[in-house]
Amino acid sequence: MIIGKRIRLRAVEKEDLPLFVQWLNDPEIIAGLMMYTPLSVADENRWFEKIQDHIPEERPLAIEILQEGSWRLAGNSEFHEISLSNHSAEIGIFIGDKSIWDLGYGTETMQLLLKHGFESLNLHRIFLRVYETNLRAIHVYEKVGFIHEGRLRQARYKNGKYMDELFMGILRSEWEAKRLLEE
């Protein structure tokens, strides 16, 4: 388990799937995700079986928050496209529990994931993709140190319109410098 101040990251369990299905069928939650169609319980079960074949470093992590002395599922995150030769990986996250949006849990999760990626997985670069319209996520990514690296113009079509896809990244040296400033 990876433990922070108010959150912990743990392996995804089959018992988490019904809540994931509920969240991933909420239009407001998936507006910022690269999902286009409704998700069934059977779809999520197939996904769960498939991820068991991933290398451990690329298996999704459940995000849990500490509230009133107990842990509660709040979302999920993962590293994928890990390149051992380049020491880089793509990262993804979603907070499905809308009642905790804008309370800093996404920021704390990203900080914990960056620490894990750079210190435990020995990554040199972590990157992500985000829709230009996902302002909440972009704010979090900038806050933890991600730099805008590029833009694919009108690369994604969702909800009847084209939107730009932004690429953001952070290098280990940038993350270390930011941590020193914050201490």
Description:
- The chain has 183 residues and is α+β, with helices and mostly antiparallel strands.
- It has one domain: Gcn5-related N-acetyltransferase (GNAT) (Aminopeptidase, 3-Layer(aba) Sandwich).
- The protein contains 6 helices and 8 strands; from the N terminus they run E-E-H-H-H-E-E-E-H-E-H-E-E-H.
- The chain has an 8-stranded mixed sheet.
- Helix 1 (17-23) packs across helix 3 (41-51).
- The chain starts with a strand and ends with a helix.
- 25% of the residues are buried.
Quaternary structure classification? single chain
Q: What best-fitting shape do the alpha-carbon axes yield?
A: globular
At the third CATH level, what is the topology name? Answer: Aminopeptidase
Radius of gyration: 16 Å
Please report the total strand number as a whole number. 8
**Tally of structural domains:** 1
Low-confidence runs (pLDDT<50, min 5 residues)?
Answer: none
Q: What is the name of the CATH class?
A: Alpha Beta
Q: Per CATH, which architecture?
A: 3-Layer(aba) Sandwich
- Distance between the amino and carboxyl termini: 24 Å
| Alpha-beta classification | alpha+beta
What kind of sheet is the major sheet?
Answer: 8 strands, mixed
Average pLDDT confidence is 94
Essential attributes:
Aminopeptidase, globular, 183 residues, 6 helices, single chain, 8-stranded mixed sheet, alpha+beta, 32% helix
In short:
This protein has 6 helices and 8 strands, in the order E-E-H-H-H-E-E-E-H-E-H-E-E-H. By secondary structure, the protein is of the alpha+beta class.
